[in-house]
Amino acid sequence: MPSRPFHIVQPAERNTCVIFASPHSGREYPEDFLARAVVGGTDIRSSEDAYVDRLIAAAPRHGAPLLLADVPRAYVDLNRSAEELDPAIVEGARAVAHNPRIASGLGVIPRVVAGGRALYRGKIPLSEAHQRIATCWRPYHAQLGALMKEAQERFGQAILIDCHSMPHEAVDGVARHGAKRPDVVLGDRFGAAAGAAVVERVEAAFARAGLVTARNAPFAGAYTVQHYGRPLRNQHVIQVEIDRSLYMDERRVRPNGDFDAFVRVMSGVVADIALIGAAGDGALAAE
């Protein structure tokens, strides 16, 4: 078992309704899990959003809490529903109607890592899957739900920036259709998870930093965006996917020579986004 599923970094003074989270940058691999996995090293780490936690580390300095997974995505995926159990890897899990995430091996207990490489030989017991969910998934979402509730009670609204990374080739299709290759993809479930004014201001924060954005293609947002995004209730959630090649060597899963400079760029973006929900900012009152 991981020593802890997540940790939270609170600001000295909470002065914004914005919350930053990284559910896939965890890298504490339990020894018993590694012993059973048939992949290791950089292969098993390929499913991480490696170093995203460091890209958004400035959030508490700007009044926003920062929720970071410690448990790795290969062990349990915190951006899936607890019901998305894959019968192809979890012994005794019930088959469900077609679910593209489960079909691709990326349910709440993943069957594969990046590139479709199998994680295990055979299946894991249903009891083990339930234990991972109980000890990692549920505490993480209890904490996330509490942060959203606190923001709404204190500021009248909550804005969650759910941060991820994407392989460089993930946006090849966007570039082929004549658009500029995006550095960042913002997912709001085509308006269902966040109000237009919130998305526009988040997009503007990236644009001021010189980063090209796209919306909802190829990533519109997964479980966290779907579950927590309720703009009519002033609960806004945006999934942010950042091109890994901007800051890391994807093959070696290491920071590249541009890493420190990109951290500074992202620190500025984080500061800008935190201002969107700052106390006394009435710009989103009509949302």
The count of helical stretches stands at 9
CATH architecture: 3-Layer(aba) Sandwich
Q: What profile does the largest beta sheet have?
A: 7 strands, mixed
Provide the domain count.
Answer: 1
Q: What spatial form do the alpha-carbon principal axes imply?
A: globular
The helix content is: 25-40%
The percent range for strand residues is: 15-25%
The CATH homologous superfamily name equals Zn-dependent exopeptidases
Q: Rounded to an integer, what's the Rg over CA atoms?
A: 18 Å
Structural class: alpha/beta
Distance between the termini: 43 Å
> What's the overall average pLDDT, rounded?
93
- Uncertain runs with pLDDT below 50, 5 residues or more? none
The CATH class name reads: Alpha Beta
CATH topology call:
Aminopeptidase
| Helix and strand element order | EEHHHEEHEHEHEHEHEEEH
Number of beta-strand segments: 11
Strand order of the main beta sheet, please? 1-3-2-6-9-7-8
Structure in words:
By secondary structure, the protein is of the alpha/beta class. The protein contains nine helices and eleven strands. The strands form three sheets. The protein has a seven-stranded mixed beta sheet, with helices on both faces. The chain has a two-stranded parallel ribbon with strand order 4-5. Strands 10-11 form a two-stranded antiparallel sheet. α7 runs antiparallel to α9. The longest helix has 30 residues, at about 125-155.
